[in-house]
Amino acid sequence: MKTAHEIRPGNVIMLNGSPWVVQKTETTRSGRNAAIVKLKLKNVLIDSSTESTFKGDDKLDDIILERLECTYSYYADPMFVFMDAEYNQYDVEADNLGDAAAYIVDGMEDTCNVTFYEGKAISVELPITIVREVTYTEPSARGDTSGKVMKPATIAGGATLSVADFVKTGDMIEVDTRTNEFKKRV
Amino acid sequence: MTPRTQYWDIFCAVVDNYGDIGVSWRLAKQLVLEYPLIINLWVDDLFSFSHILPQLDPSLMTQYIDGINIHQWNTPLDIVYIPGHVIIEAFACKLPNIVIEQLNQRQDSLDATPPLWLNLEYLSAETWVDECHGLPSLQTSGLKKFFYFPGFTPKTGGLICEKALFNEREQWQSHPQNKLDLFTQLGLTGIHNHDEVISVFSYETQALAALCALWQTSEHKIHLLIPKGRSLRSLIHLLPCPIEALVSGQQIVHQSLTLHILPMTDQQGFDRLLWSCDLNIVRGEDSFLRAQWAAKPFIWHIYPQEDDYHLVKLEAFMQIYCDNLAPEIAKSWSMLNVAFNQGKQSDVKMHWHNLDSERLAILHHAQKWPNIALNNADLATRLIQFVQSCEDAALK
Q1: Model confidence over B212-226: pLDDT tens digits?
Q2: What is the pTM of this model?
Q3: Which residues are A15's β-sheet partners?
Q4: Residue in A36, A39, A54, A55 to test binding to B, most B beta-carbons within 10 Å
Q5: In the annotation, is B34 catalytic?
Q6: How many beta carbons lie within 10 A of that of residue B253, not counting itself?
Q7: Is the four-CA dihedral A48, A49, A53, A59 of positive or negative sign?
Q8: What is the DSSP string of A104-128?
Q9: What sign has the CA pseudo-torsion B18, B23, B338, B210?
Q10: Does the annotation count B168 as an active-site position?
């Protein structure tokens, strides 16, 4: 079991007898620090998606399915192809990657966990932190060096996030894939 | 009259003294008064509840007041829970296990359906509320719970407001003698019709002490109506004795400023108090909303959260509130609220000064705001509509 707060894209949770791939998580705060977690879910068994909301401390039945460490190989529309250490290839539907798709770039060496349900690759969990190049961000407006002033940026793969004002286009930055938060410049 | 055929259960865990139960009680009362419903209100702390409902006897397991069945919610439950049509967990409180078990049994039964299960959440003006309101929360058991978010936009669950409230307020405010009679009734003496009266129901903050210093040197008389509570902890230097020794109706005079110690009052009395003051300093959720319905200027001392997240919530509200306000006035009012919440003494004084010349404009805005905020439908009405739409969807 995991709390809703601990759930991240790529996890598979059991609801009402069906496994659901978590495609997107959004955590917001309610009153008195209580968190609200909104999950975008895709049913593994039937072609059905839904959004569901939980309290941050709600217990969810995350199921441990077969997993393999893989690296990204290439994209064959609409499939992302991953490869394990023995060069076996696995196709994962782009839709099943959810928000993780925006971190996928050619040549990436990050080790991902590909999850299987009844022999079929159904989701991909990224490492908690990844390093990506900033492909576009506005120049620093205020000359801020404290890191507290944030501005929008796009990184390789297409994900957008808020970065510290001192970050420039072309910089390599570390991102937390659970929260899509900028961690530091590397 | 339509017979009362449906019954709903509202569960409320008292966390803050009067906030959660204040909202739950108002909702229960409105549902019973305006709709043909039987309401069971389960409360885990009847003693706190009795402060805003003096006729409540905290020693009774169950009692019937204003048309509502009020039950003591003990863990484990010692009153039998029988599922009705709707069950509301107020403000993310956790339903008792026995209740969840009963819901699960109904889910598995061919003969009975579980009640519609709602989590009534905290009020926020943040934009994400629009996206989360009404979303289901799928449970492992197959049960579905719905998140219900109050809010200021048509996409949210609305704001608690009794249908007759604005008429009652307008009638009250159209006769200045009403407020003077109320002050007399509360044991507050020496307040004249032209004096400025400010009510305070805040948390501790040095901003209040700073404003009091300012008000002491005011050219006109200012009366601060303040209950024995957290606000006074910031004004100890102005008190002649420890807070515990203060008595209701006591007056403490410091030049132009007179502090009046307010007696505890019920919700109706609190509404009238807000209607009768020139400015209300309020906190939390319930008093915050009632100050808006008072159509008077107010300062919101929002519940402090980790990482100053409460300032994000304050900012979201200020943006909505100031939408139709002239930019300069909006800025002054917003800066005053931010400074008050940050406890910044010099800033709060400066912004109070800046706002002083705009008091009339702020008052006019406060008078227009309730109808704008309500968006033509209050929370109870939207709740009834939401339940109906869920039931219709279940039948399809």
Answers
A1: 999 999 999 999 999
A2: 0.85
A3: A18
A4: A36
A5: no
A6: 12
A7: positive
A8: --TT----EEEEEETTEEEEEE--S
A9: negative
A10: no
